[in-house]
Amino acid sequence: IDSQAPDLLARYTELIEKFPGMTTRTETMKSGAYGVYAQKISGRFKDEFNGQSNPLFEVVKKYGLWNKKAFDKSIPESFFSLPEEQIKILLSALWDTDGSIYFKKHSSGKNPPFLEYCSVSEELVRDIQRLLLRIGVVGRVTSKKTSYTYKGEKREGKTAWRVTVGSAEYVHRLLSALSLHGHREERRIKG
């Protein structure tokens, strides 16, 4: 996980460290965001669980999420049949990490919000669009080619996939459903 929201980082760290034999490592990235990584405590991994592997890793493996790269991520199929309240929790966690709330500048002086989730995984973005439909929200999927500069040379990046919610009705419905933390919550309140 990487984030600039200290409360979200603290919450993630607390949840990981509830698993025996697990700790977290924090790094500051060039962007100023922090990266928090789950890892085992040396020498205690198998002993803690009577020779069995850590339950956190078992859950990650069970749902096919182990060792996934950003462009390989998706929502496990069984999650689509979760109750609506759990879908809202999942969407909230996804928006806390890679979602955004923007306010459009409008000539009328009103600044209506729109919400966006962005990833290099088309499958993940389409899965999120599907989850949004479960809570009565319609999102639009678009893509954009990205680029970056490395040692003064402009290079082509991966395609970025986005699901955007812009209709006032759906924005209101989604904001009412999400339980956001950190700077995303502050932006929602100020909007």
Describe this structure in words.
By secondary structure, the protein is α+β, with helices and mostly antiparallel strands. 35% of the residues lie in helices and 27% in strands. It has six helices and seven strands, in the order βαββααββαββαα. The chain has helices spanning 6-17, 55-62, 84-98, 122-134, 168-177, 182-190; strands at residues 2-3, 22-28, 34-40, 99-103, 113-119, 140-150, 153-165. It has a four-stranded antiparallel sheet. Strand 6 (140-150) and strand 7 (153-165) form a beta hairpin. The longest helix has 15 residues, at 84-98. The protein is globular, with a radius of gyration of 19 Å. Mean pLDDT is 81; it is low at 184-191.
Could you outline the blueprint of secondary structure elements for this entry?
Layout: E1 2-3, H1 6-17, E2 22-28, E3 34-40, H2 55-62, H3 84-98, E4 99-103, E5 113-119, H4 122-134, E6 140-150, E7 153-165, H5 168-177, H6 182-190
Antiparallel strand pairs: 1-3, 2-3, 4-5, 5-7, 6-7
Provide a compact summary of the structure.
The protein has helices spanning 6-17, 55-62, 84-98, 122-134, 168-177, 182-190; strands at 2-3, 22-28, 34-40, 99-103, 113-119, 140-150, 153-165. With 191 residues, the chain is α+β, with helices and mostly antiparallel strands.
